[in-house]
């Protein structure tokens, strides 16, 4: 721990913010790397007396902040951490930074299943950092889950996140293309969830630099119309879900109606397009028969 006068720190902070960037990212950096929480920072602003203890020196923090500003590198990748619901997750540039809107998937599951204490078997296809599956494994200790991804490096990060988040053993990680790793669980799933790559090609080309340049393309691009992966997931879902099993998909802002038609075509019922907090039809859910 390094000790510096609070007044010196506050002057330095003002100088860094004058270079650009947003306060939220700066606070994130100070919290993750500097070891100063947002609430501690507020207290320093109110009472700028005495000394402050930092985990890293100001030059080190400044180098990271400038990398963020100059290269548009997401602050989460620079810090190697993302916060999602109540989880602190490791992330690298192999893994999509889990988005706040995706947090609602856990609430959709809770709304469908309530606080069920009985056993249930779920799978998440394309787990990335593991955020969704880990949150469910923690929320429902009696449930058993399998989280899959096409990329073994991604699964190593997801596994590490699971181990660091709890001491449970109700989640397993398998590598492979969508349903392929689940072949021995045909007809056994009560619930399948996926936030697959769904950005249409034309939209992908126009994504902000910090997303397109640094986040994994394989986690974002959903083919020409964005529905390439969603189509495949829906078509094979009936083989893996139990009768009345649920499928929950995250989708692009305008894909809900098309996904609803795909679900109907594949004999799903109870289909619903669920809005995110901005009123966008971000999720499409349905039940197999
Ligand atoms: C949009 S990200 C979602 C990550 C995480 N579930 C989340 O919500 O933050 C999509 C994930 O699907 C994985 N993926 C892409 N193509 C895949 C495929 N063919 N089979 C399995 N997983 C795939 C990517 O590696 C990525 O981790």
Distance between the termini: 59 Å
Tertiary shape: elongated
Query: Structural class of the helices, strands and pairings?
Result: alpha/beta
**CA gyration radius, whole angstroms:** 21 Å
Concise account of the structure shown:
The protein is an alpha/beta fold and 289 residues long.
List keywords for this structure.
289 residues; alpha/beta; 7-stranded mixed beta sheet; 12 helices; 11 strands; 41% helix; binds S-adenosylmethionine
Give your account of this protein's structure.
The chain has 289 residues and is an alpha/beta fold. The protein has 12 helices and 11 strands. Strands 7-6-5-8-9-11-10 form a 7-stranded mixed beta sheet, with helices on both faces. A hairpin with a 2-residue loop joins β3 and β4. It starts with a strand and ends with a strand. Bound molecules: S-adenosylmethionine. S-adenosylmethionine binds next to α7 and β6.
What is this structure's SSE topology?
Blueprint: E1 2-5, H1 6-18, H2 23-34, H3 38-46, E2 51-54, H4 58-71, H5 75-79, E3 81-84, E4 87-90, H6 104-113, E5 121-125, H7 131-139, E6 144-149, H8 152-165, E7 171-175, E8 189-194, H9 201-205, H10 209-212, H11 228-240, E9 241-250, H12 256-265, E10 268-275, E11 281-288
Parallel strand pairs: 5-6, 5-8, 6-7, 8-9
Antiparallel strand pairs: 1-2, 3-4, 9-11, 10-11
């Amino acid at each position: 721990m390094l000790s510096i006068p609070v007044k010196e720190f506050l002057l330095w902070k003002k100088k860094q913010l004058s270079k650009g960037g947003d306060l939220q990212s700066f606070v994130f950096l100070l919290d993750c790397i500097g070891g100063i929480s947002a609430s501690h920072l507020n207290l320093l602003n109110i009472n700028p007396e005495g000394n402050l203890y930092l985990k890293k020196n100001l030059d080190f923090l400044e180098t990271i902040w400038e990398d963020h500003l100059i290269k548009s590198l997401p602050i989460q990748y620079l810090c190697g951490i993302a916060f999602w619901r109540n989880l602190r997750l490791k992330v690298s540039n192999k893994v999509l930074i889990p988005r706040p809107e995706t947090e609602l998937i856990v609430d959709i599951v809770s709304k469908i299943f309530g606080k069920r204490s009985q056993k249930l078997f779920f799978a998440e296809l394309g787990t990335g950092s593991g955020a969704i599956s880990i949150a469910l494994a923690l929320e429902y200790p009696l449930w058993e889950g399998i989280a899959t991804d096409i990329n073994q490096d991604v699964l190593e990060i997801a596994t590490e996140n699971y181990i660091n988040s709890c001491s449970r053993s109700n989640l397993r990680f398998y590598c492979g293309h969508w349903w392929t790793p689940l072949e021995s669980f045909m007809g056994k799933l009560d619930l399948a969830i996926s936030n697959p790559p769904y950005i249409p090609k034309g939209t992908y080309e126009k994504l902000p630099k910090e997303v397109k340049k640094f986040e994994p393309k394989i986690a974002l691009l959903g083919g020409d119309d964005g529905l390439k992966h969603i189509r495949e997931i829906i078509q094979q879902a009936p083989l893996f879900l139990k009768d009345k099993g649920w499928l929950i998909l995250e989708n692009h802002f305008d894909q809900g109606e098309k996904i609803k038609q795909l679900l109907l075509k594949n004999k799903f019922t109870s289909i619903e397009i669920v809005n995110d907090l901005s009123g966008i039809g971000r999720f499409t859910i349905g039940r197999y028969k």
